[in-house]
Amino acid sequence: MIRQPTDRIDPKRRNIISHKKKQFADPTYKQQEYPYRLSFYDVPPTIEITLEQFEQWAIDRLRILAELEACSFRNKTPVETAAHISPLLLKYLPLYANTSSSSGPQDAKLRLERQKDHYSHFILRLAFSSTEDLRRRFARIESALFKLRFQNDDARERQAFIESLDFNWEVVPEDEKRELGPHLLNATPGLRRQELEDGGWFKVDWEMVPELVESRRVFVKKGKAYVPAREQMSMVLAEFSARLDKGLELTSRALPRLDEDDRLTPILAHLSKNFATPDSTLTDADSALPGAPITAASVDTLAQHFPLCMRNLHATLRANSHLKHFGRLQYTLFLKGLGLSLEDCLLFWRRSFRLIADDTFNKEYRYNVRHAYGDVGGDALRRGRGYSPFSCQKILTEHPPGSGESHGCPYRHFSVDNLTALLQTTGVNDREVLRGVKEDVEKKRYHIACNRVFEWAHKGELKRVREDGSWGAADLDVIVHPNTYFKRSYLLRHGAGAGGGDKEVEMET
Questions:
Q1: Ramachandran category for residue 414: left, alpha or beta (phi over 0 → left; psi -120 to 50 → alpha)
Q2: How far, in Å, CA of 408 to CA of 422, rounded?
Q3: pLDDT tens digit string along 22-68?
Q4: Is-contact 64 88, C-beta < 8 A?
Q5: Closest CA to 120 of 68, 174, 70, 65
């Protein structure tokens, strides 16, 4: 009988390694090199860091992403965004070029900066891979950060970085360039003949450069876009976004494996829940209207100054004499932000719910209103203040409405036909405005659509305050909160100053 060697593995059996050998085995990892300031984040980090670094590095990057999103939310220009973000990057996430040190990429300070950038990206990738909405949001802001850094990078180092990526871009041969010369000149704005003859050209699938195709800055033939070398940024950015989207999808599949790690899961959950626009909160000073007592009886008259989300809730409440939970919460906090007292708010809801008995209202609804105002429940620190009115960002991203619910943002949660019908019922009949709103919604610029409607409804008043200089640039900034919408609308219609202090403001009753 032939004895089988004991160290051979039966191909029909699984190769199970002893848990003791696996537990005490030396860790294997790839030493990450950072030859360039920019990175496509293709290789995940493997070197160990402390939990404190894990959390702090992620928070620092989150600050930058939140500020970038705030700039986008306020429709700032690229120049304004760069001016706002640059000092924050130096403070929280510095990333200097190789030319800043005589040692180049081997400099210890540069390595630490790039390591922090590398790790913080992957930590937030873990935090924002759980849902499609978070993945899309994270990819959009990360792409904006990469674009900002790409534009500000050292020219030589940037070109070396692009060459290291080994893109599969087809170079347009000279004979084809001469043949298509007139078309390339006509289709590329600002292109001079000398640039056409001397500059390099690439031929790529048009899906790789949607930004250039949309703005009609390239020549497209048979599905191929002819891109001049000066437009490299669009191709690099498209490649970065495509790889990031793929990486986020793969990360989302691996997330269930983290459930057993009770150290990281709470940190990641905390990071994802706190990714909100930092300036979207509302203070009492922001929403106060001096000398303007708001009562339960005046809400119907004041509804003409409400943003579309609150007008929809008010109309639904008047039509059905009822709102579901999240609709009541969103509307209650909005009314609270206007300055409606708890007593008047309870009176308003009791009169609105006219189809139910007093006992039912007291048992099922009264406590929720008091809780929102901080009169009951909650801890000692929050009691007396209650919850803050919902910002546009919170309404857009949390608790999407289901069947029979009326809360949320109509610009995001309504179909285009239903949104158009709702706008028309509120008096918005201008075709250009409706067309602009439709385009904004298709591009997911919901806040811009809302501001577009506001500017159309108050075009006369806005022209007046701009001409007389009574309102500054900050008073005319993009609206990012429903209560700011109301206050600005009311003050414009009643001729008060931006702060509400030019004269006493009296509410209609």
A1: beta
A2: 14
A3: 555 555 556 678 889 999 999 899 888 998 999 999 999 998 998 88
A4: yes
A5: 65
